[in-house]
Amino acid sequence: MNAHAPRIEPPRLGEPYLLTPGPLTTSYAVKEAMLKDWGSWDGDFRAMTQDMRIRLLNLLGDGSDDFDCVPIQGSGTFSVEAMLASFIPRDGKALVLANGAYGMRAAQTMEYLGRDFRLLDKGDYLPPRGHEVAMILAEDPDITHVVAIHCETSSGILNPVEEISEAVYTAGRKLLIDSMSAFGAIPLDVSKIRYEALVSSANKCIEGVPGFGFVLARKSELEAAKGNSHSMSLDIHAQWAHMNKTGQWRFTPPTHVIAAFLEALRAHEAEGGVAGRGKRYMRNRDVMVSGMRELGFDTLLENRWLSPIIVTFFCPSDPNFVFDHFYELMKDKGFIIYPGKLTVVDSFRVGCIGQMDEHVMRQVVIAARESLREMGVTSATPPAAALQERAKLAS
Ligand SMILES: *Cc1c(COP(=O)(O)O)cnc(C)c1O
User: Fold this and answer.
1) pLDDT tens by residue, 68-112
2) Which among 206, 385, 179, 176 has a CA at the least distance from the CA of 300?
3) Which residue ranges make up each domain of the chain?
4) Which CATH superfamily is domain 17-24+273-394 in?
């Protein structure tokens, strides 16, 4: 890890670690940054907004000059909706690539917007592949945009956005990426992978608190977005134009959240940026996954598809294992885990992001071992049906 990386401190108020994909455990410095009040019109706050936008753009690597950053109030979903409504023209058509809840939510958003779309639904976790995208685009010339989820947080799969981007631009279409749970920890360099816009939010890999999202988009797309949005408050073109003209947000900004986010961005930089953050999360995942496997737990995904963001485990087949009980026992030991979202077999999820390092992840494994013992579970092995389900990935 970077020699200058700030030490990870345990939560000072004794609250449990959030092993969840945002909100997540933040540093004390991030929380402390919220103690001051800011006037939204004041020059100091305008400078903070500008500093934040530049710092976010810098995370795109070489070529970021062609992009601009537009923050949007609300949770991440508000920014996804803003992106879809602002960049896909009313007479456009999207291909939505889904393999979990967030892909399905993007499709549902298109339905609300009343805009034409086609859905490639790969089920709970199978990755949408480049050749599938190429085939659909070849047979459907009306499709103008492809919408992809970078890390599908509902299973934790890291989708192959590079090959998807290749397929999209070979066919002369445009790519929009929901990189909500990956941005800041997994590179999405504009010099290496092409896309028109990505969206993420304050409370994921940058390790801020919830309250706003942001869109990083090509200036050419921002220019062209005028008049596309169905919504006044979610109009990215309008927010962008106003912010560039006045330095201000159009409506009340979450001032404290932004102050906290700036602190989080400074810590992100001190940790070595995207590479440093990604390295810590990968180590978190590797330590946690190998410890859990030693206890007999099995992951939904093979190593190749495991993201360093969140990992899905099958629930053990042992009849003494009851998820709600396991959850409470883990919470008693200082760890909040996350229920699974699979439809076919029972599962739960453990996040690797937030103010945690490998030492914390070792404690997580110990807590899991103790919890199993307290429940009288002798083996954490999943049922045969779970392993059959996983075999689909190999085929
Ligand atoms: C967190 C997340 C979102 C946004 O969820 P909110 O609850 O609205 O913040 C969207 N897409 C993905 C992939 C996410 O992980």
Assistant:
1) 999 999 999 999 999 999 999 999 999 999 999 999 999 999 999
2) 385
3) 17-24+273-394, 30-270
4) Aspartate Aminotransferase, domain 1 (3.90.1150.10)
